[in-house]
Amino acid sequence: MPLSSHHSTFFHAFFLHPRREHPRAPRAIVLSSRGTNELALINWRVSALAYGESMAFEQPLPKALSPSRLADFQTCPRRYQHASVERIPQPASYATAKGRFVHYIFEQLIKLEGPERTVDAARDFVEPALRHILTAEVREEIGLDDASEARLLAETQIIIERYFTMEDPREVKSEGIEMRVGVTIGDTPLFGILDRLDRDVEGNLVIVDYKTGSLPNRNYDSQTFANAELYAVLCEEKLGERPAKIRLLYVSQGETLERAVSEVIVKARAAAAIAAWEKIKRYYADGDFPATPSRNACRFCSFQDLCRVQGVPVPPR
Ligand code: SF4
Questions:
Q1: C-alpha gyration radius of the chain
Q2: pLDDT of 132 above 70
Q3: Which atom of ligand 1 is nearest to the CA of 293?
Q4: Which residue range forms the structural domain that includes residue 151?
C-alpha cells in the first residue's frame, strides 16, 4: 500500500539533528505500526543511526543503470537514492498491476507460433495472468476487491480488442521477447529489458514497447521516447546493429506512436546516460543525492512522506 496521507497518521517523528556532520546524518526516526514501506523506513533509520558520522550508504551502488532508473534519476536524484540505492520497496498500484497483467498476456501471445496468435489465444491468457500476476500478495497490496478485479478484466478485454486493430501479431517477426540486454559503454554499465525487438518487412530492427497508461502530451515527445531510445543504445552496442524505429503501442487507446532512431539521438542518449552515471557515483560517494521536488516530479512518487519527514519541500498533494 502506498505511503498515502492516511498512513501519515501512524507516524511519530522524533527529530534528531543536533549536528550535520554528514550530508546524510540521520534527521529523524520514524516509528510506525504496519506496512512494508514503513518497515523499510525504520530499517533505513536504524542503519542510518548505526552509521553515525562516517555513514555513507549501507547498500552497494547498483550494478547497472536501466532506462527507467535513469528516468528516476533525471527526474529527481533523491528518488533514485530511495528506489535504487536504499532499495525501499515501491508498492504496487492498480495501474502498475494492470501494466504487468497486460504485458504478461502479450508476452505469452507473441511466444506462440505466428499463425496461433489469434484474439482467442490472447483471451485464453487472461486466466493464467490472474494466477501469475495477481498473486495474493499483489491483491492485498493494491486492495483488489471483486469490483476492481471486474474492472481490470473488463479493461483487459477492451485492450485485447484494441490491440488487434493496431497490428496483426501473426505477422510479427520477433527477434526477442522480454529481452534482457546488458552492455558497458565506457565505464557506464547499462541494462534493460525490452518488451519486444522485431524485424520488420524491410529487414530493420524495431523496438516495440507496450504502454498501458494514457497517451502522452505531445509537448513532451522527447521524454516519451527517451527510455526506448536508450534501449536503442543497448541494442546497437550489443548486437552491432542500430534499430531503425521505435514503436510505442498505447494499447488502452489503440494508438501507436512511432519514431525513427538516428545516430544523433543514440549518441545523445548514450552521453546522457554516461553523464548521469558519473553523477550517481559522485552523489553515492558523497552520501547524498539531492532532492529536486516539483509538482510534476513528486506527484506520482512513492517517497513523498519520507521526503517530508526529511524536510524536503514536497508540493502539497
Ligand atoms: S517526493 Fe519529490 S523530492 Fe521526494 S524523492 Fe519523490 S520526486 Fe524527489
A1: 21
A2: yes
A3: 3
A4: 94-170
